[in-house]
Amino acid sequence: MNLLSSLTGEFRDPARESAFQAERLPEYSRHARLLFQLSALLNCLFLLSDWRFAGTPHFWIAVPARICVILWSLFCLSLCRRMTSFSAVERICFAWQVVTAVGVAFLVSSRSDIAVFVLVMLPLVFYLVVPTSFRGNVGGGLGCGVLLLIGYLAPAPLSPTMPGMMMAVLMLHCGMWIAIARNNRLQRQEWMAGRLARAAQDALADSRDTLERMFMAVPLPLLVTRRDGSVVRMNRAAADSYMSGQDVSLDNVNRTYVDLPTRDELLDRLQRGETIDSFECRLRRGDGAIRNALLSSRPIVIDGESCFVTSVVDITERKEAERHLEQLAMSDALTGLANRAHFMAAVTQATTALGERMPLSAVLLIDLDEFKRVNDTAGHDAGDALLCAVAGRLRHALRPGDLVARMGGDEFAVLLTRLPGADALQPILTRISEHLHAPLSYRGRPIESRVSIGVALFPDHGDDGAALIKHADIALYHAKNSGRGRATLFGPELLDSWEREAAMLDRARHILANERPVPWYQPKVALDTGALQGFEALFRCPTGMGDIIMPGDISVAFEHPELGPAITAQMVDGIVTDCRRWRDAGLSFGHIAFNVSGADLNDDAFADRLLERLEQAGLPPSMIELEVTESVFLGRNADRVGRILQRLSETGVAIALDDFGTGYASLSHLKQFPIDVIKIDQRFVRDLETDPDDAAIVRTVLNLAYSLGIRTVAEGVENQQQLDYLRAGGCHFGQGFHFGAAMPAVDVEAWLRADAGARSMT
């Protein structure tokens, strides 16, 4: 709450205002006495100047008025002994103001130059000099101004400057009201501040003993030192902490600092007058123990001497905890190796420490092959044991000083430094492979340990850590895609290949988000009768620009674990929708074949989703033929693929082996898996009439299929000679440009109607 009036600047509380006035009574009395004395003296001097009016009518007005003011000032001076209270001072001063104002009002009726001066000056005296309250100052000043203005303007004729004079007087008084209020406010604020200061001094004097006891009782070490480091005082906690019961005396703190540069920095900052907070340093105790401490220091003055008061917080245990946490934050909890953050920091340091003078270094990214299978079949405890074993084997395979880290999951990383040349890398890679590919036994159960490695060299393959990690990752990607269990050194061609594949994946994501892949259909014809047997649904994606995206434009996406199944799902929806429409239209289209990838068959729910979609559309499973390549039978997931294909085959879905003879399949796969159709790749069909080797391969495949009771389809049939050869060899079906190119669903419907019409005419 504001204690002072915003209008008068005086205390709102009458009691407080009375106390203020009573305390300043001697000063007010002295000012009033001086005011009366100067009034009598100055008016005597003015009386001498009034003789200039001799011989004018104004002379007999000015002299009596001046004498009256002088006598009244002397009378008021004689009453000063009765000023025993502020109200008495105020009454006497008010009486002086009234008589003086009336007398001077007669004097200014002369309208002389000095009269104008008096018209301005006397109200200022009443405002600023007369020791009264706000109402006394304002009332006296305003009354004086009115009387003087009347005296100045009363004689006729009226002055033409009368309005301006009145406005000037009004402005003067308004300004003086503000000045008086501000002066009152400042005086009372000063008075309150003085009283508070005296109260604080009294309290400080009374509590010196209390402060001393508090200083000694504070559990935090406190020291008061001079600028040269000598100790003035210390509390009990400081003595206990840094003297430690030893027969030593801490008389100068400068000798306790362990690190002299740190001490010099602290002293320099203190000498510059800086405030010190949380300054970290190491201090030596009296028993020789070194402790970490945080210092906070403030300048103080003791008995006129500049000193510093410093608090000391022991943070030794905290620093040890921080170091422990830092070690945990930079280490892998399972293997004890460095973690990703530690490894990235080390690579950054290695690539920037010495610049061009840095010797050859290498970053190795190591990924465990089939680690998920170990977790799924042997349990996560076996997976953890494998990770720990790999960590231990890596330590033994590498040189002292090489950094091994676990980047997360089943991925490890190695930083090789100080390589004399690129040739020195191969023996290290060989040693790593030998150690990591050695058999591992866990609880009597063998666990296969094989790894793929990607390698990038500094500075050949990147001039910073991010580039090295990226390029090593690309090399690892190619190592895994090239058969796994091998090490691959990064090269520009790998980056080009990776960028092409990345572009394909980005394009596939764009297609799934913004376009609509649709199946186009290529007819399959019975070679013996020429009748339509069905279609193969091929991926096409028309764009808004009028282009058509072909499968080769996004070939990598079909094997992607997320994009591949998403594309297949859209293709299945399109196929089922088209088949339902054709069937409702009474069109006979045989069966529809379409390709599925390993990414589709790695999902146990693929068969159920496909059969459910067919059931919802009211289509029999026998209307569908799945085409798989030989690569789906390779790798660790062959058993899962077999189960899915067997489940579909049992429901009536035909299984075709696509591109037969171009991959790595074994002939045993024809017996092991439910293969109903073998598709002869177009590379063998294209030149079979001119290339004896191609003709021999085609003839062999046809004979093999005949012996196993498997139907055959020849791809890429483009002319009558190829058709005749295949028909003669016993091939069942053919597809290619000779029979028709792939076409959209709307064209298929027209083609089917035309084919049906042609059959009806025959």
Question: What would you say this structure looks like, in words?
Answer:
By secondary structure, this protein is of the alpha/beta class. Helices cover 52% and strands 17% of the residues. It is built from 25 helices and 21 strands. The strands form four sheets. An eight-stranded mixed β-barrel has the order 13-14-16-17-18-19-20-21. Strand 17 (624-629), helix 20 (638-651) and strand 18 (654-660) form a beta-alpha-beta unit. Helix 2 (25-49) runs parallel beside helix 4 (86-107), helix 3 (59-78) packs antiparallel against helix 4 (86-107) and helix 4 packs parallel to helix 6 (134-153). The model has no long low-confidence stretch (mean pLDDT 81).
Layout of SSEs?
Elements: H1 14-23, H2 25-49, H3 59-78, H4 86-107, H5 113-128, H6 134-153, H7 162-217, E1 222-226, E2 231-234, H8 236-242, H9 260-271, E3 276-284, E4 290-302, E5 305-314, H10 316-329, H11 340-352, E6 360-368, H12 371-378, H13 380-397, E7 403-408, E8 411-419, H14 425-436, E9 440-442, E10 445-447, E11 451-458, H15 465-481, E12 487-489, H16 492-514, E13 518-526, E14 532-542, E15 548-549, H17 563-584, E16 591-595, H18 598-601, H19 606-617, E17 624-629, H20 638-651, E18 654-660, H21 668-672, E19 677-680, H22 682-685, H23 692-708, E20 711-714, H24 720-728, E21 733-734, H25 745-761
Parallel strand pairs: 11-12, 14-16, 16-17, 17-18, 18-19, 19-20, 20-21
Antiparallel strand pairs: 1-2, 1-5, 3-4, 4-5, 6-8, 6-11, 7-8, 9-10, 13-14, 13-21, 14-15
